[in-house]
Amino acid sequence: MNFLEEKILRDGVIKEGNILKVDSFLNHQIDVDTIRQMAYEFKRRFRGVEVNKVLTIEASGIAIATLMGHLYDVPVVFAKKSETANSTDDKYVSQAFSFTHKRHNNVFVSRPYLSATDKVLIIDDFLADGEAAHALIDLVHQAGGEVVGIGIAIEKGQQKGGRELRAEGYRLESIAIIESMDWQAQTIRFREQPPHPLVNTTLQMA
Ligand code: 5GP
User: Fold this and answer.
1) Is 3.40.50.2020 the CATH number for 3-190?
2) What is the pLDDT averaged over residues 111-135?
């Protein structure tokens, strides 16, 4: 079991409706040591991949993405959400249905912050149906850039996002993949992942 799976079992709370609450370390309060370990884990899994920009979506992806930007020494861009798009003139706009809020959001990035020379690593906290990830991919493609990888902290493997993104050929790395969870028993089963070499989780940021 990896550090994130252990953390989820220790501090996560399963809610009715297939929702995992991780407010105590990721979605409200941020446990910096845990997200630092995530950043090193993504860096290790995407070793050899050329990245010149990290892209995420507000709000909870920002903390992890910021540490990734630090490790790669590249800019970090976060897509913004709004219910309306006043004008698309100065921005790339896509749409995503929010699994947690049950509504469609416009998702946008101002044009200067994505370009055709970008090799983008997409980072997010959760992957469920893949709506947010597909919107981010769409924004990168509208700018003419390339998606070189997608790094997710927690993938809900029983939902379609991961399956679709892998079938589309994206390099997707999820640190913890939930195979099933039971809110009444408060139990979670994780998908077995290939063993990775030990990471020194006490490393300080470079
Ligand atoms: P997707 O767009 O892949 O359907 O859903 C991913 C987004 O929905 C994430 O950015 C995250 O904010 C939210 N999300 C989906 N499922 C969960 C969940 O079980 N717990 C939490 N905390 N957020 C979730």
Assistant:
1) yes
2) 98
